[in-house]
Specification:
This protein has helices at about 1-5, 10-15, 20-30, 35-40, 50-55, 60-80, 95-105, 145-155. It is mainly alpha-helical. It has one domain (about 1-85, about 90-155). It is elongated.
Length: about 160
């Protein structure tokens, strides 16, 4: 496990099993075309440069689960089981986003045109990554929101929204 913890300092260790090279190249390229790339390029106090900054699990329980799963995956890889995972077994939680962005949300002014500016939405537990797509290409000025995903998330509560 200590080996895995040391290796996770290097994003290339993570992508050896978990990401396609294309996603990694997009993450480290300029200008940023994905949310992950925007975070990677931001650099500075509080900005992640490593996969593990967001994919680390939150709190002791989350960190332990991710670390054990990483060690298990590394052992399987060494044993010759080198298939690429098809999905995340431990999804990124809101706490992963809020450890850096909580103050941004608290500072959001009332604005009926923005999800986080609507007071009734303040206590919704919708996953951040259900609207803010992490590794899919998007536009920075739109905060990497995907209209199709956003609409489907809105329709979970607002069933009266028209399909368009």
């Amino acid at each position: 496990m200590a080996f895995v913890k040391h290796q996770d300092e290097d994003n290339r260790f993570c992508i050896a099993c978990h990401l396609h090279r294309e996603q990694y190249d997009a993450m480290v390229s300029a200008p940023p075309t994905t949310l992950a790339a925007a975070h990677h390029r931001a650099r500075g106090a509080g900005h992640p440069e490593r996969c593990f900054t967001c994919h680390s699990g939150e709190g002791l329980g989350g960190w332990s689960a991710v670390t054990l799963l990483s060690a298990w995956d590394a052992a399987r890889w060494v044993a010759g089981d080198r298939h690429e995972p098809t999905g995340m077994r431990l999804p990124v939680s809101n706490q992963a986003c809020l450890k850096c962005h909580d103050s941004d949300l608290r500072a959001q002014k009332r604005d009926e045109q923005k999800f986080h500016g609507i007071p009734d939405h303040r206590h919704k537990t919708l996953p951040c990554v259900s609207c803010h797509r992490t590794h899919d290409r998007g536009r920075r000025e739109r905060r990497f929101l995907d209209d199709v995903n956003v609409r489907s998330q809105c329709q979970r509560c607002h069933r009266d929204l028209e399909e368009s």
